[in-house]
Amino acid sequence: MSKTVRLILGDQLNSNHSWFKTVDDSVVYVMMEVRSETDYAKHHIQKVVGFFAAMQAFYLDLKAKKHEVIYIYLNDEDNLQSFDKNIKSLIAKHQFTHLEYQQPDEFRVDALLKELCSAIAISTAVVDSEHFYTSRTDLADFFEGKKTFILENFYRMLRKQHDVLMEGDQPLTGKWNYDSENRKKLPKNHKPTAPLVFSNDVTEILAEVNKTDAKTIGTIDAANFVWPINREQSLELLDFFIDECLHLFGSYQDAMTPNEWSLYHSRLSFSMNIKMISPQEVIEKAIQAWRANPDKIEYNQLEGFVRQIIGWREYMRGIYWLKMPEYATMNFFNNEEKLPDWFWTGKTKMNCLKDAINQSLNFAYAHHIQRLMITGNFALLAGVHPDEIDAWYLGIYIDAIEWVEITNTRGMSQFADGGIVGTKPYVSSASYIDKMSHYCGSCFYKKEVKTGEKACPFNSLYWNFYDKNEDKLGKNPRIGMMYNVWRKMKPEAQTALLEQADYYLKNINEL
Ligand code: FAD
Ligand code: DLZ
Ligand code: SF4
């Protein structure tokens, strides 16, 4: 009798997948908690526990729907601790005649499963994960023959193709981009909406992880785990975002303020990346809410949100599959430094970094502009090797899966790809950080001071970055103005800035 085994990876918890439409006696699903996955990065403890909690909830749901499922727990005696070893063992034990899996999102796992298929005697098939708007190769096809990969063009094509906020082939309001109306600083006494958090009890899962020697970072309140671990909670978070946050999403998308860890962001990346909810339903619900209540939710807020998901999220996935595996080796600036020790502890006198890192350690989350313009900005200014930076981002965030982590980190944030994702490096001095946040006022360092006592490190490191990389950036038309400013500075001022930067770089762990 033919018997099929279907592998479900930890980021494939899509209950609407066509696999699950019917119950088939000849199919057995398999899910597994394995050390190969807990150990390929030093993950945040909330990430490991969050994945396992969501996987276990998905397993119970499939069982309740009468599917046959084998679930291998982390400390099961016969767990061989990797996808391929466990599958080989299951094939031998249960006499499976056919293996199926959904297209993995990660290059490493894709290669591993392809190799497994060529090493086993039974027939195999790979199917779509039925989650994204685009296939792995749509971006490559769209930009074929082009030298640059402009997000805006890809975004507009997808809006048209999926008829999202369109009237015929024109944008509904006649305008594609509302960025200029968005991105404001939070007013001084503005109290943001408190985030919806869950109170999941994951103490047993944590105890199992703690029995192993898996290395993790960060803290967890296992009796009150804040992240959604199933589809119902993910939908609840989506509703909360739409009711409480969407109307201010665009406005405060780039704002930062101390001790407010999510502001008007959706925190849906974990739910989406592990496929508990789909980007289509997120977009559809947001559009429905805007249609129902256009006085509360202005169009620019909605477009800002739609752009992140149909635009950036699909774009990053396309870049990943077009450019891997070379992408993971790119280091445009030949940076070689180590990440400062305080990236792992949050113990720094720089208020903006202290806040962004501590909240990352406490919640396994930071919003986009904290990742890009605080931690990423500093790491690039400090000349840290992109491998070190990738390892940090891949571990610390609950939503970190390589396809979306590496393109954002190596590409958007570090410009290590030399300009595939971005047209210029995202670096700034204190003035941008102060413009978008309330961090500087209570900082040990002084935002307006460039050299000498208590000078904000961002200021001298910023000019040092441009000076050091002039051969690579000097001709970039988007940066020309900064080089004009630099060249017009008095030589003494330049020397003082470079000496200050050199001092800070030599004493980076003391900052
Ligand atoms: P919101 O601000 O509410 O945005 C809504 C959704 O839009 C997000 O859930 C996400 O799915 C999508 N989105 C927004 N920006 C991006 C983007 N630049 N790329 C892809 N999707 C985007 N995102 C991840 O999902 N995983 C990562 O590992 C990751 N690493 C990052 C590393 C760096 C250095 C930077 C600068 C960004 C990274 N991002 C990553 C992108 C972005 O910061 C997160 O998607 C976002 O902060 C998640 O929080 P949210 O759900 O509240 O997003
Ligand atoms: C992130 C993660 C972790 C920590 N553990 C597991 C696991 O034990 N089993 C599993 O199937 N998936 C896990 N994941 C997610 C995988 O790393 C993810 O499925 C791959 O990176 C493919 O994108
Ligand atoms: Fe960050 Fe500098 Fe502002 Fe301090 S003064 S919060 S280090 S930008």
Beta strand %: 5-15%
| Secondary-structure-derived class | mainly alpha
**Taking Cα atoms only, what radius of gyration do you get, to the nearest Å?**
24 Å
Portion in helices: 40-55%
Poorly predicted ranges = none
Overall pLDDT metric: 97
Number of strands: 7
Distance between the termini: 66 Å
Count of helix runs: 20
* Largest beta-sheet details: 5 strands, parallel
The main sheet orders its strands as 3-2-1-4-5
How would you describe the shape? globular
Descriptors for this entry?
5-stranded parallel beta sheet; binds ligand DLZ; Cryptochrome/photolyase family protein; Crypto/Photolyase_FAD-like_sf; binds iron/sulfur cluster; mainly alpha; binds flavin-adenine dinucleotide; two-stranded antiparallel ribbon; 511 residues; 7 strands; Rossmann-like_a/b/a_fold
